[in-house]
């Protein structure tokens, strides 16, 4: 071992590996409490803040719940996002493309002003990066890949691809669904292929979306038209079409006019004619859940802990809830003088988050299986079920409050 290898070059209170939306939000939460944080990401540059949320919408978007919005407001990121581009939706319409069932949800029925916003991922990340630039205790290091993780005398040591070593009592992996850090920490993951690949693109429709998020469940998988408003024009939607790998391959290879025809037919032309205005991308959908979220001096958050089918738009919302809870536990421990990597504190974080994430993963599986069947009894039950839910306003209110993130004891930063 060389001398440099024995002596870490820099020490922090928390090292966060992965500066996507989830890791950046955690760095902002901790930085606002003056915790010394290193936020490391392999991507070479920050998001080009002067370009995002302008012109044609970016292809990757997220449906953010009102609970996630409150967190981002607290981080002083939301007002900049709202000034760039966020599209509120007050209604959701879900129907069975193979039967007659249909259910509508409104913000009014849920007792809230809005059900959520569709926001481009780049807009969220750029807003968080702007907030981080104001926090003197957060060192953002881009173009830095973590290649190793070890136990050190005072916690954990991470090795970087440029040969440097950093140490901290707590290392948090926010390094995405394939999480190299999860593997380095030896945490097993339960993964199962959903059998779906998501085809993602942006369309312009003949009629405006009217602030409604729409989703049709077809036997091959769900197709979502998520509303986007561009300079006051409501005729844009972000598309997430989950389907079989073969079908996805065929769809992305089509010319824009061909894909538009397929989208229009599958969506029953509910918004009239469809024009595809961006390229189409195929994203494989695997659900994963880490067997446990924590080890001494180590925690998983966001997609590194769980990756979920996007049919209910929950992924990043669950990740933001993870970091709100973890930051709360870290700050309590810090005030009490408890070491930040202390396993009892980390277990409290895991206990508060794992059940909620597991329930959501199971629910997504249930939806996918229920709607992916041609079994006549299940089809009938599905249609009767949707019609029944549609008539039961108190049940709808309960379901909506779950979907918009109002579940259990929320961390203070999200209340
Ligand atoms: C088609 C689709 C639609 C979706 N729609 C929604 C939606 O509507 N609503 C919603 O809530 N969620 C949605 N999601 C889920 C959401 O996109 C993810 O949950 C979210 O992007 C995860 O963020 P993250 O920060 O955890 O991980 P990531 O965004 O994957 O970030 C991980 C970061 O870690 C970095 N990294 C990785 N390895 C290393 C390393 N060794 N060293 C340094 N850096 C490293 C990477 O460069 C990357 O920047 C959708 C997902 C898909 C696929």
Shape: globular
Approximate strand percentage:
25-35%
What ligands does this structure carry? flavin-adenine dinucleotide
Structural class, from secondary structure content? Answer: alpha/beta
Mean pLDDT: 91
Gyration radius, rounded: 22 Å
Name of the CATH architecture of the domain at 3-55 and 126-192 and 287-391: 3-Layer(bba) Sandwich
Low-confidence stretches: none
Compute the number of helices.
Answer: 13
Helix content percent band: 25-40%
The CATH superfamily of the domain at 3-55 and 126-192 and 287-391 appears as FAD/NAD(P)-binding domain
Termini, distance in Å? 49 Å
Biggest beta sheet attributes: 9 strands, mixed
Q: Which fold does the CATH topology of the domain at 3-55 and 126-192 and 287-391 refer to?
A: FAD/NAD(P)-binding domain
Task: Report the strand count.
Answer: 22
CATH class membership of the domain at 3-55 and 126-192 and 287-391: Alpha Beta
GO molecular function, one term: FAD binding
Subunit structure: Component of the Ubi complex metabolon, which regroups five ubiquinone biosynthesis proteins (UbiE, UbiF, UbiG, UbiH and UbiI) and two accessory factors (UbiK and the lipid-binding protein UbiJ).
InterPro entries: FAD-bd (IPR002938), FAD/NAD-bd_sf (IPR036188), Ubi_Hdrlase_CS (IPR018168), UbiH/COQ6 (IPR010971), UbiH/COQ6_monooxygenase (IPR051205)
Protein name: 2-octaprenyl-3-methyl-6-methoxy-1,4-benzoquinol hydroxylase
């Amino acid at each position: 071992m060389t001398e440099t290898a024995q002596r870490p070059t820099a020490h922090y209170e928390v090292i966060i590996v992965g500066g996507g939306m989830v890791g950046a939000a955690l760095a902002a939460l901790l930085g606002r409490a003056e915790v010394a944080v290193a936020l490391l990401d392999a991507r070479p540059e920050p998001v080009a803040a002067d370009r995002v949320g302008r012109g044609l919408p970016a292809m990757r978007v997220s449906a953010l719940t009102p609970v996630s919005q409150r967190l981002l407001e607290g981080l002083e990121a939301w007002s900049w996002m709202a000034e760039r581009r966020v599209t509120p939706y007050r209604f959701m319409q879900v129907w069975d493309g193979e039967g007659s069932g249909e259910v509508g949800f409104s913000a009014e029925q849920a007792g809230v002003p809005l059900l959520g916003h569709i926001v481009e991922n780049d807009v969220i990340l750029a807003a968080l990066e702007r907030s981080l630039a104001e926090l003197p205790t957060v060192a953002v290091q881009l173009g830095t890949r973590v290649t190793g993780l070890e136990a050190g005398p005072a916690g954990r040591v991470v090795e970087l691809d440029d040969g440097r070593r950093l140490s901290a009592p707590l290392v948090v992996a926010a390094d995405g669904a394939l999480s190299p850090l999860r593997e380095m920490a030896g945490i097993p993951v339960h993964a199962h292929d959903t059998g779906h690949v998501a085809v993602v693109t942006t369309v312009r429709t003949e009629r405006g979306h009217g602030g409604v998020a729409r989703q049709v469940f077809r036997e091959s998988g769900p197709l979502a038209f998520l509303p986007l408003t561009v300079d006051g024009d409501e005729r844009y939607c972000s598309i997430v079409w989950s389907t079989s790998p073969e079908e996805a391959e065929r769809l992305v290879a089509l010319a824009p006019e061909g894909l538009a025809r397929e989208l229009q037919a599958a969506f029953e032309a509910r918004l009239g004619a469809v024009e595809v205005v961006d390229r189409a991308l195929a994203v494989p959908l695997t659900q994963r859940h880490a067997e446990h979220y924590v080890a001494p001096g180590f925690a998983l958050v966001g997609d590194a802990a769980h990756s979920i089918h996007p049919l209910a738009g929950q992924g990043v919302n669950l990740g933001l809830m993870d970091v709100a809870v973890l930051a709360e536990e870290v700050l309590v421990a810090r005030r009490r003088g408890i070491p930040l990597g202390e396993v009892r504190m980390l277990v409290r974080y895991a206990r508060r988050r794992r059940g909620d994430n597991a329930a959501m993963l199971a629910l997504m599986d249930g939806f996918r299986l229920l709607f992916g069947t041609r079994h006549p009894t299940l089809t009938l039950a599905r249609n009767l079920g949707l019609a029944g839910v549609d008539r039961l306003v108190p049940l709808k209110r309960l379901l909506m409050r779950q979907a918009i993130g109002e579940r259990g004891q929320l961390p203070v930063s999200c209340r």
